[in-house]
Amino acid sequence: WHLRGLHLSRELELIAMGQVADKHKQREAPPPPPPPSAQKASKRVEEIIIKITPIIETCAAIADFMGPYVDKGFQFGEKLYHSAERNGAEEYVQIGLGLLLLFFGGNFPVLIAAIEAFRITGWDSMKTSFRILYKEYKKAMVAHKKDDEMDANNDGVPDVQQIGAQEVVKRKVLLFLTETDPKAVNEGVMGLSSGFMSVLATLRVKFAKTVTLGVSLADCFNETAQKIAGPALMRTLPPEHHKWIDLLISYACRSLAVTIAWWCQRIISALHCAMRGGQMILKGISRALARHNIQLSLDLSPSNPAFPAACTALGSVGFAFQAMHGFSLPFPLNILLLPFRIMEWALFYMLSYGPQ
User: Who wins on pLDDT, 306 or 34?
Assistant: First the structure.
């Protein structure tokens, strides 16, 4: 029995050693390959990255080019704003904005309404969100510049110049994810998006009559155009394209109707902006004169009974100026104010042709 016990203990010891060895083999064994669905998804992601690499490179080049100017513009705007607050120059800003509204307000009806809605609904939240994103942007740009100068192998050539475009994109994306705070980025993006949606909702309510007028005119134009232009297009186009005639006429009528409706709105907005601009100019001049203790024989303060008549007269001059120029910007303002025109067109198309 003693020998049998020794033999049994030896067998148990060998079995335990074999189990330990099996465990070590399991630990050292390579992980199993991913399932076919995961491999297909990974391959699909790589294909998408390869396709969008040129777009990302273009956006990165634009960001590299525009980044310093955006930074300087933001800093200049902050300095100008704080300088105006310290020196009490609000009235001069008011006069300048009044001049823009008086002579050029009809060119930016949607943008002006968006700024007003922005001040009322989302200024505080969007300002905070923009500052958060701007802070994260500066952190990412500092890391981006350091990464462009990094030379890990000390061969005198930066590492980013020795790898392909796809590797550069992956490297920059990983750098952005590493250097920025995801909670701060999410907070900034959500704040901007919510503020933008509230402004857009306000604009839809304000210009609902204009959009409704455009849709009503489009229905009226469509009925007549189907009778007049429909047969002509059927004779002109080949038979295989006749199925597109109704849609083509519908879009053409809607574009024409929306253009007419917005031109009517532009005229109304030009008149409103001219009157408001004249009021802002006279109020700003009155405040500036009071600040510098300058007294004129003509009282320009709002307490004067003739103040509404003066605002109306000045506003009429501004409206006549806009009408003489066809409610368009003269040269060189049409070039200098191109960014504002682009924003106006973008908001116009979002309100007119976007989902209602």
Answer: 306
